[in-house]
Amino acid sequence: MQIGIIEPQDFSLKALTLLSDLGNVSKFESGTIEDFLVDKEIIFVRLNYYLDTHLLSNANKLKYICTPTTGLNHLDLDYLRKNKIKVISLKGEFDFLSDIRATSEHTFGLILSLLRNYKNAISTTKENFSRDLYKGDEIFENSIGIIGFGRIGKLLTKYIQSFNGNCFFYDIDTTIKEIYGAKRLDSVEELISTCNVITLCASYELTSNKFFNKAYIDLLKDKFFINTSRGELINEKYLLKKIKENFFKGIAIDVIRDESKENNNLDEFLNIDKSINFIITPHIAGATYTSMKRTEEFIVAKLKQLLIKQI
Length: 311
Description:
By secondary structure, this protein is α/β, with parallel strands linked by helices. The protein contains 13 helices and 12 strands.
Protein backbone atom coordinates (compact mmCIF):
# COMPACT_ATOMS: atom_id res chain seq x y z
CA MET A 1 0.00 0.00 0.00
CA GLN A 2 1.43 3.38 -1.05
CA ILE A 3 1.02 6.10 1.55
CA GLY A 4 1.96 9.74 0.94
CA ILE A 5 2.44 12.62 3.36
CA ILE A 6 1.95 15.91 1.55
CA GLU A 7 3.08 18.17 4.41
CA PRO A 8 5.73 16.14 6.24
CA GLN A 9 7.41 18.84 8.34
CA ASP A 10 7.46 17.83 12.04
CA PHE A 11 5.17 14.89 11.34
CA SER A 12 4.89 12.65 14.41
CA LEU A 13 7.63 10.00 14.44
CA LYS A 14 5.30 7.62 16.23
CA ALA A 15 2.66 8.14 13.55
CA LEU A 16 5.27 7.52 10.85
CA THR A 17 6.27 4.24 12.49
CA LEU A 18 2.65 3.12 12.68
CA LEU A 19 2.10 4.05 9.03
CA SER A 20 5.17 2.05 8.00
CA ASP A 21 3.44 -1.04 9.37
CA LEU A 22 0.61 -0.41 6.91
CA GLY A 23 2.62 0.16 3.76
CA ASN A 24 5.34 2.10 1.98
CA VAL A 25 5.45 5.69 3.26
CA SER A 26 6.86 8.56 1.19
CA LYS A 27 7.03 12.30 1.80
CA PHE A 28 6.31 15.07 -0.70
CA GLU A 29 9.52 17.10 -0.82
CA SER A 30 10.04 18.04 -4.49
CA GLY A 31 8.37 17.96 -7.88
CA THR A 32 4.62 18.42 -8.27
CA ILE A 33 1.85 17.15 -6.05
CA GLU A 34 0.07 15.75 -9.10
CA ASP A 35 3.05 13.50 -9.89
CA PHE A 36 3.52 12.60 -6.24
CA LEU A 37 -0.06 11.35 -6.00
CA VAL A 38 -0.05 9.12 -9.08
CA ASP A 39 0.50 5.84 -7.19
CA LYS A 40 -0.85 6.84 -3.76
CA GLU A 41 -3.72 4.95 -2.15
CA ILE A 42 -3.63 6.92 1.12
CA ILE A 43 -2.50 10.50 1.68
CA PHE A 44 -2.09 12.74 4.72
CA VAL A 45 -2.74 16.44 4.33
CA ARG A 46 -2.93 19.42 6.66
CA LEU A 47 -4.19 22.83 5.50
CA ASN A 48 -1.70 24.22 2.99
CA TYR A 49 -3.37 22.82 -0.12
CA TYR A 50 -6.90 22.77 -1.49
CA LEU A 51 -7.41 19.25 -2.79
CA ASP A 52 -9.72 19.47 -5.79
CA THR A 53 -10.06 18.13 -9.33
CA HIS A 54 -6.89 19.92 -10.41
CA LEU A 55 -4.56 18.44 -7.78
CA LEU A 56 -6.22 15.01 -7.69
CA SER A 57 -6.64 14.52 -11.44
CA ASN A 58 -3.85 11.91 -11.59
CA ALA A 59 -4.63 10.24 -8.26
CA ASN A 60 -6.55 7.35 -9.79
CA LYS A 61 -5.57 4.90 -7.04
CA LEU A 62 -6.48 7.17 -4.13
CA LYS A 63 -8.86 5.63 -1.59
CA TYR A 64 -8.33 7.62 1.63
CA ILE A 65 -7.49 11.19 2.54
CA CYS A 66 -6.38 11.58 6.17
CA THR A 67 -6.52 15.05 7.66
CA PRO A 68 -5.95 15.82 11.37
CA THR A 69 -8.47 18.66 11.27
CA THR A 70 -12.08 19.23 12.28
CA GLY A 71 -12.82 21.59 9.39
CA LEU A 72 -12.83 20.15 5.87
CA ASN A 73 -13.05 23.28 3.73
CA HIS A 74 -9.61 22.50 2.29
CA LEU A 75 -11.13 19.50 0.51
CA ASP A 76 -13.46 19.40 -2.49
CA LEU A 77 -15.94 17.09 -0.80
CA ASP A 78 -18.20 16.80 -3.87
CA TYR A 79 -15.28 15.55 -5.96
CA LEU A 80 -14.26 13.09 -3.25
CA ARG A 81 -17.79 11.70 -2.97
CA LYS A 82 -18.09 11.27 -6.73
CA ASN A 83 -14.79 9.40 -6.84
CA LYS A 84 -15.52 7.33 -3.73
CA ILE A 85 -12.52 8.69 -1.83
CA LYS A 86 -13.06 8.46 1.93
CA VAL A 87 -12.05 11.21 4.35
CA ILE A 88 -10.64 10.33 7.76
CA SER A 89 -10.66 13.39 10.01
CA LEU A 90 -11.26 14.68 13.53
CA LYS A 91 -14.78 15.78 12.71
CA GLY A 92 -17.18 14.44 15.32
CA GLU A 93 -14.44 12.95 17.52
CA PHE A 94 -15.74 14.75 20.59
CA ASP A 95 -14.23 12.50 23.26
CA PHE A 96 -10.71 12.72 21.85
CA LEU A 97 -10.95 16.44 21.11
CA SER A 98 -12.23 17.37 24.55
CA ASP A 99 -8.67 17.70 25.83
CA ILE A 100 -7.07 19.26 22.72
CA ARG A 101 -6.51 22.79 23.96
CA ALA A 102 -4.33 24.63 21.44
CA THR A 103 -7.05 26.63 19.66
CA SER A 104 -8.67 27.74 22.91
CA GLU A 105 -5.29 28.85 24.27
CA HIS A 106 -4.51 30.82 21.10
CA THR A 107 -7.92 32.49 21.17
CA PHE A 108 -7.33 33.49 24.78
CA GLY A 109 -3.90 34.83 23.82
CA LEU A 110 -5.41 36.95 21.04
CA ILE A 111 -8.02 38.37 23.43
CA LEU A 112 -5.29 39.37 25.88
CA SER A 113 -3.10 40.77 23.07
CA LEU A 114 -5.90 43.00 21.76
CA LEU A 115 -6.96 44.22 25.18
CA ARG A 116 -3.39 45.15 26.11
CA ASN A 117 -2.47 46.51 22.67
CA TYR A 118 0.54 44.20 22.60
CA LYS A 119 1.18 44.38 18.85
CA ASN A 120 1.81 48.12 18.81
CA ALA A 121 3.50 48.18 22.22
CA ILE A 122 5.96 45.45 21.26
CA SER A 123 6.87 47.16 17.97
CA THR A 124 7.21 50.62 19.51
CA THR A 125 10.11 52.90 18.62
CA LYS A 126 12.22 55.20 20.74
CA GLU A 127 10.10 58.15 19.61
CA ASN A 128 6.94 56.41 20.86
CA PHE A 129 8.36 54.71 23.93
CA SER A 130 5.63 55.91 26.27
CA ARG A 131 3.40 53.80 28.50
CA ASP A 132 0.57 56.32 28.07
CA LEU A 133 0.28 55.45 24.37
CA TYR A 134 -0.41 51.78 25.04
CA LYS A 135 -2.77 51.72 27.98
CA GLY A 136 -5.10 48.77 27.62
CA ASP A 137 -7.98 46.89 29.17
CA GLU A 138 -8.18 43.85 31.42
CA ILE A 139 -10.04 40.56 31.20
CA PHE A 140 -10.97 41.07 34.86
CA GLU A 141 -14.70 41.95 35.01
CA ASN A 142 -14.77 42.43 31.23
CA SER A 143 -17.63 40.91 29.24
CA ILE A 144 -16.60 38.29 26.67
CA GLY A 145 -19.10 36.80 24.24
CA ILE A 146 -18.52 33.45 22.56
CA ILE A 147 -20.37 32.53 19.36
CA GLY A 148 -20.34 28.74 19.13
CA PHE A 149 -20.19 27.02 22.50
CA GLY A 150 -18.59 23.73 21.60
CA ARG A 151 -15.28 22.30 22.79
CA ILE A 152 -13.22 25.41 22.01
CA GLY A 153 -15.76 27.81 23.48
CA LYS A 154 -16.11 25.83 26.68
CA LEU A 155 -12.35 25.57 27.24
CA LEU A 156 -11.98 29.26 26.45
CA THR A 157 -14.59 30.02 29.10
CA LYS A 158 -12.54 28.19 31.74
CA TYR A 159 -9.49 30.32 30.92
CA ILE A 160 -11.49 33.56 31.01
CA GLN A 161 -13.16 32.64 34.28
CA SER A 162 -9.75 32.06 35.87
CA PHE A 163 -9.07 35.75 35.14
CA ASN A 164 -12.47 36.69 36.58
CA GLY A 165 -13.95 37.74 33.27
CA ASN A 166 -17.69 37.50 32.59
CA CYS A 167 -18.62 35.00 29.86
CA PHE A 168 -21.71 34.86 27.68
CA PHE A 169 -22.43 32.58 24.75
CA TYR A 170 -24.76 31.97 21.83
CA ASP A 171 -25.14 28.69 20.00
CA ILE A 172 -27.70 27.51 17.45
CA ASP A 173 -27.89 24.24 19.39
CA THR A 174 -30.49 25.03 22.04
CA THR A 175 -29.66 21.84 23.97
CA ILE A 176 -26.24 23.16 25.02
CA LYS A 177 -26.36 24.01 28.70
CA GLU A 178 -24.75 26.80 30.68
CA ILE A 179 -21.45 25.66 32.18
CA TYR A 180 -18.38 27.15 33.88
CA GLY A 181 -20.39 30.25 34.78
CA ALA A 182 -21.11 31.25 31.17
CA LYS A 183 -24.58 32.68 30.54
CA ARG A 184 -26.58 31.76 27.44
CA LEU A 185 -28.05 34.61 25.38
CA ASP A 186 -30.82 34.20 22.84
CA SER A 187 -29.28 35.79 19.74
CA VAL A 188 -26.06 37.03 18.19
CA GLU A 189 -27.44 40.57 18.40
CA GLU A 190 -28.01 40.26 22.15
CA LEU A 191 -24.54 38.77 22.62
CA ILE A 192 -22.84 41.64 20.78
CA SER A 193 -24.83 44.32 22.60
CA THR A 194 -24.02 42.71 25.96
CA CYS A 195 -20.29 42.10 25.43
CA ASN A 196 -17.19 44.18 24.87
CA VAL A 197 -15.20 41.28 23.35
CA ILE A 198 -16.71 38.92 20.77
CA THR A 199 -15.05 35.66 19.72
CA LEU A 200 -16.19 33.51 16.82
CA CYS A 201 -15.68 29.84 17.71
CA ALA A 202 -18.45 28.29 15.59
CA SER A 203 -17.90 25.26 13.38
CA TYR A 204 -18.18 25.68 9.61
CA GLU A 205 -20.54 23.90 7.27
CA LEU A 206 -21.48 24.89 3.72
CA THR A 207 -24.83 26.07 5.06
CA SER A 208 -23.09 28.52 7.41
CA ASN A 209 -21.26 30.36 4.60
CA LYS A 210 -21.08 34.08 5.45
CA PHE A 211 -23.15 33.45 8.58
CA PHE A 212 -21.53 36.49 10.22
CA ASN A 213 -22.95 39.08 7.82
CA LYS A 214 -22.87 42.84 7.38
CA ALA A 215 -25.59 43.38 9.96
CA TYR A 216 -23.58 41.58 12.65
CA ILE A 217 -20.35 43.34 11.69
CA ASP A 218 -22.07 46.74 11.92
CA LEU A 219 -22.91 46.00 15.56
CA LEU A 220 -19.21 45.66 16.46
CA LYS A 221 -18.43 49.38 16.46
CA ASP A 222 -15.64 50.07 19.02
CA LYS A 223 -15.65 46.48 20.23
CA PHE A 224 -12.99 43.75 20.14
CA PHE A 225 -13.52 40.89 17.67
CA ILE A 226 -11.60 37.61 17.29
CA ASN A 227 -12.07 34.84 14.72
CA THR A 228 -10.19 31.56 15.16
CA SER A 229 -12.89 29.49 13.46
CA ARG A 230 -13.05 29.74 9.63
CA GLY A 231 -12.84 32.71 7.29
CA GLU A 232 -15.77 31.33 5.31
CA LEU A 233 -18.10 32.16 8.21
CA ILE A 234 -17.73 35.90 7.62
CA ASN A 235 -18.54 38.40 4.90
CA GLU A 236 -14.82 38.98 4.46
CA LYS A 237 -14.92 41.82 1.92
CA TYR A 238 -17.08 43.88 4.27
CA LEU A 239 -14.91 42.92 7.25
CA LEU A 240 -11.83 44.21 5.39
CA LYS A 241 -13.59 47.47 4.62
CA LYS A 242 -14.45 48.03 8.29
CA ILE A 243 -10.94 47.11 9.49
CA LYS A 244 -9.45 49.71 7.14
CA GLU A 245 -11.89 52.28 8.56
CA ASN A 246 -10.55 51.49 12.08
CA PHE A 247 -14.11 50.53 12.98
CA PHE A 248 -13.15 48.06 15.73
CA LYS A 249 -11.43 48.79 19.01
CA GLY A 250 -9.34 45.74 18.20
CA ILE A 251 -9.58 42.78 15.84
CA ALA A 252 -7.62 39.54 15.52
CA ILE A 253 -8.05 36.76 12.95
CA ASP A 254 -6.30 33.43 12.57
CA VAL A 255 -8.22 32.38 9.45
CA ILE A 256 -9.17 33.85 6.09
CA ARG A 257 -11.55 32.76 3.36
CA ASP A 258 -10.06 30.36 0.77
CA GLU A 259 -6.75 30.32 2.62
CA SER A 260 -5.52 27.18 0.81
CA LYS A 261 -6.39 28.66 -2.61
CA GLU A 262 -4.34 31.12 -4.64
CA ASN A 263 -7.02 33.78 -5.01
CA ASN A 264 -7.74 35.08 -1.52
CA ASN A 265 -7.55 38.34 0.40
CA LEU A 266 -4.29 37.68 2.26
CA ASP A 267 -2.39 40.57 0.65
CA GLU A 268 -5.13 43.01 1.63
CA PHE A 269 -5.01 41.83 5.24
CA LEU A 270 -1.22 42.04 5.38
CA ASN A 271 -1.23 45.58 3.98
CA ILE A 272 -3.60 47.02 6.60
CA ASP A 273 -2.25 50.15 8.29
CA LYS A 274 0.07 49.01 11.08
CA SER A 275 -1.29 51.63 13.48
CA ILE A 276 -4.64 49.81 13.64
CA ASN A 277 -5.08 47.39 16.53
CA PHE A 278 -5.27 44.45 14.12
CA ILE A 279 -3.55 41.08 14.47
CA ILE A 280 -3.43 38.36 11.84
CA THR A 281 -1.84 34.96 12.45
CA PRO A 282 -1.39 32.24 9.77
CA HIS A 283 -3.93 29.69 11.04
CA ILE A 284 -1.68 28.67 13.92
CA ALA A 285 -4.40 28.28 16.55
CA GLY A 286 -4.28 24.48 16.49
CA ALA A 287 -0.67 24.26 15.36
CA THR A 288 1.35 23.34 18.42
CA TYR A 289 3.83 20.47 18.56
CA THR A 290 1.72 18.80 21.22
CA SER A 291 -1.66 19.03 19.52
CA MET A 292 -0.40 18.13 16.04
CA LYS A 293 1.52 15.13 17.34
CA ARG A 294 -1.52 13.84 19.22
CA THR A 295 -3.95 14.40 16.35
CA GLU A 296 -1.69 12.77 13.75
CA GLU A 297 -1.29 9.71 15.92
CA PHE A 298 -5.04 9.58 16.50
CA ILE A 299 -5.78 9.75 12.77
CA VAL A 300 -3.28 6.97 12.02
CA ALA A 301 -4.92 4.78 14.66
CA LYS A 302 -8.33 5.57 13.16
CA LEU A 303 -7.06 4.65 9.69
CA LYS A 304 -5.58 1.39 10.96
CA GLN A 305 -8.87 0.40 12.61
CA LEU A 306 -10.75 1.11 9.40
CA LEU A 307 -8.37 -0.96 7.32
CA ILE A 308 -8.54 -3.87 9.77
CA LYS A 309 -12.35 -3.90 9.52
CA GLN A 310 -12.10 -4.21 5.75
CA ILE A 311 -9.83 -7.24 5.80
